[in-house]
Amino acid sequence: GTINCNAVTAKGEIVGATSTCGLFFKVPGRLGDSPVIGAGLYVDGEVGACGSTGWGEGNIRSAGSHTVVEMMRQGKSPEEAALKTLERIVALAKENRDARRKPAFNTVFYVVNKKGEYAGASVYDGIYGSTGKFSRTSFAIADASGARLLETAYLYKKER
Ligand code: ASP
C-alpha cells in the first residue's frame, strides 16, 4: 500500500519517503502521485516535509506536497498549509464528484516542519467500508511522548 513517513531529528535534519503500489484496477502504465517529487512527497531541509495518500491525479495537478511545504515556508502551520492545499485540490477536481457534487475521493497529507510541529489533514473525516463501518482517518506520530494514532484535521464530514 501507500505509506508516507517523515522525520525530523533533534538537530533539525529532515527526511521523508512515500511508498506505493498505486491504485486498485489502475490502467497499465498509470503513474500515481507517490513517485512524483512535489506531488506525493516533498522535503525541504530548511522548512519541512509533506507526503500524501489518496487520489493521486488530483494531487499531481496541484503539486500538493510542494504546495504544502511552500505555504509553511511563508509562515503557515502544518495544519493550515495542508487544509489550504486540500481546498485547492478539491476546487480543481471538478470531474471527480459524487451524485451530491461533493468530492468523490479522499486525499490525506502528512506534514512536519523543522521545529517538529506536525499535522495530518484529509478531505473527509473518514470513510465507510463495504460493510458500512465508519473508519476515522488517522495518522501515526512518534516523539518524546511516545507513539500514538491521532485523528486528522479535515474539510468535510463524510455522509452515508
Ligand atoms: N496516492 C496513490 C496513487 O494515486 C494511491 C494511494 O494512496 O494508495 O497512486
Walk me through this protein's architecture.
By secondary structure, the protein is an alpha+beta fold. 19% of the residues lie in helices and 37% in strands. It has three helices and eleven strands; from the N terminus they run E-E-E-E-H-H-H-E-E-E-E-E-E-E. It has helices spanning 56-61, 64-73, 78-92, and strands at residues 3-8, 14-19, 41-44, 48-54, 107-113, 118-124, 126-128, 134-136, 138-143, 146-151, 153-156. Strands 3-4-5-6-11 form a five-stranded mixed β-sheet, with helices on one face. Strands 1-2 form a two-stranded antiparallel sheet. Aspartic acid is lined by residues 1-2, 20, 22-23, 32-34, 40, 53-54, 56.
Key traits:
two-stranded antiparallel ribbon, alpha+beta, binds aspartic acid, five-stranded mixed sheet, 160 residues, globular
What's the arrangement of secondary structure elements?
Layout: E1 3-8, E2 14-19, E3 41-44, E4 48-54, H1 56-61, H2 64-73, H3 78-92, E5 107-113, E6 118-124, E7 126-128, E8 134-136, E9 138-143, E10 146-151, E11 153-156
Helix pairs in contact: 2-3
The chain binds aspartic acid (ASP).
Summarize the structure.
The protein is α+β, with helices and mostly antiparallel strands. The protein has helices at residues 56-61, 64-73, 78-92, and strands spanning 3-8, 14-19, 41-44, 48-54, 107-113, 118-124, 126-128, 134-136, 138-143, 146-151, 153-156.
